[in-house]
Design brief:
The chain has 11 helices and no strands. By secondary structure, the chain is an all-alpha fold. Helix 4 packs antiparallel against helix 5 and helix 4 packs antiparallel against helix 10.
């Protein structure tokens, strides 16, 4: 059986990887039932992801209390999740069922489309969550200058840049899986280091400010306390989204890294990729729940939207 060793085969591309990992009777033999179960799971996740993120986008459109650039970033994150439910998860169902039915030509193209769209959307999500952490840090450090520096135009420019960079990155798989793999690792490390720095800086700054407030209690007022409380909620929401994404993505990242270094393709590896990919999709279904749980304004807007739909 051929060895998938990207570090040794620099010319390996997404088509050969798809055939070696998924689209082969040697690989899928004996795991048809598991693939069918994964297809049913992905079909269910597709419905919940689509409905949940449609509600969130409608709620964010109605919500006016959020700072517009921050709302653009949250809307972009919800849009990527919506695309996962609308495009990626149905494509996963097509791939799984084509593998079960041993239609290898459809299987190969389905895996390629799944990889390209999935990696593009995952990269945009990761970059957007990193941008949200930077946004929260700037809101704390800049104070009154925040609204002058973080403008709606710059937020849109950042979002467009994220989509362009992610598309180029995913297209690398057509030429060299090795380069694409290490670019992905560098991207993940960059986002993790940046967001970790931002949240650490936020924590230290808030603790320093709290110590100053305790020393000068008579100088504080109710408005400042309310602003700090709202800011803490915003940071808490961003952290929940970040940890959820990491928990869902980490198994797939570890598996892909190990396979890229050295691994021999067999059915258990293919099945493991299927389950870790489904776990990645779970994050897109969980994010709407986190929005409603952590952002009171969004929760109320979602309730109003549901009531309007039911009344109609």
């Amino acid at each position: 059986m051929a060895t998938v060793n990207v570090s040794e085969d620099g010319k390996q591309n997404i088509f050969t990887t798809a055939e070696l990992l998924y689209c082969s009777s040697d690989i899928t033999a004996g795991i048809h039932d598991q693939f069918t179960a994964l297809a049913v799971l992905n079909a269910f996740l597709s419905i919940t992801t689509f409905l949940g993120n449609v509600l969130i986008l409608a709620a964010l459109r109605k919500e006016s209390s959020l700072h517009p650039p921050s709302k653009v970033l949250l809307s972009n994150l919800a849009t990527t999740d919506l695309c996962v439910g609308l495009i990626v998860e149905p494509q996963a169902v097509i791939f799984l069922m084509s593998a079960v039915n041993e239609n290898w030509e459809i299987c190969r193209y389905a895996v390629v489309v799944l990889f390209i769209t999935g990696i593009t959307l995952c990269s945009v999500s990761l970059l957007t969550l990193t941008a949200i952490s930077v946004d929260r840090l700037l809101a704390l450090l800049l104070g009154l200058r925040y609204r002058q520096v973080v403008t709606l135009k710059r937020a849109y420019l950042i979002v467009v840049t994220f989509w362009a960079v992610s598309t180029i990155f995913s297209a690398m798989q057509f030429f060299n899986i090795f380069i694409a793999l290490w670019c992905g690792i560098i991207l993940i490390l960059f986002c993790l280091v940046t967001s970790t720095f931002c949240y650490t800086k936020i924590f230290l700054t808030l603790r320093h400010n709290q110590n100053q407030v305790q020393e000068h209690v008579h100088q504080t007022n109710q408005t400042n306390q309310l602003n700090i409380a709202r800011y803490r909620k915003a940071v808490s929401t961003a952290l929940c989204l970040k940890f959820t994404l990491l928990a869902c993505y980490l198994p797939q990242v570890i598996l892909a890294t190990l396979l890229g270094i050295h691994a021999e393709p067999f059915s258990s590896v293919s099945l493991a990729f299927g389950f870790t990919t489904a776990l990645v999709f779970v994050s897109s279904s969980l994010n709407p729940i986190l929005y409603c749980w952590k952002i009171e304004e969004v929760r109320q807007a979602v309730k109003d939207t549901i009531i309007e739909v039911l009344c109609c």
